[in-house]
Amino acid sequence: MSAVVNLVRTNPALAPLFIFGGSGIVGGVAYIGHCLANGPDVIINKTAAEKPWNRIQPHENAKLWSPNKEFWQQRKERVEQSKKV
């Protein structure tokens, strides 16, 4: 680690390279961790009886990001209305 610090001290133009490269690596590892922990199509515990894709409700969004949030809100309202009837 001190070799990297010494390299950046001698060549300050390399600092953005290490900052953006390091943040890209950390972001990639965080995304993989998120997919492993929350992904409905990933099975880590193979001894569990319930399959993870069976836990998703019809109104839940399984995506990391969805540009159409109104769709999921309308779908949730429809599910709630159908439960009342």
Uncertain segments are none
Radius of gyration: 22 Å
Counted up, domains total: 2
Order of helices and strands: HHH
- The proportion of strand residues reads under 5%
Structural class: mainly alpha
Mean pLDDT across residues: 82
Helix content: 55-70%
Shape: elongated
Total number of helices:
3
- Give a quick account of the main beta sheet: strands, pairing sense, barrel closure: none
Quaternary structure classification: single chain
Ends distance: 63 Å
The number of E-state strands comes to: 0
Kindly describe this structure.
The chain has helices spanning 2-10, 15-38, 69-84. The chain is an all-alpha fold and 85 residues long. The protein folds into two domains: 1-38, no CATH class; 47-85. The longest helix has 24 residues, at 15-38.
Relevant terms:
elongated, 2 domains, 85 residues, mainly alpha
In short:
It contains three helices and no strands. The protein is mainly alpha-helical.
Strand and helix map with partners:
Blueprint: H1 2-10, H2 15-38, H3 69-84
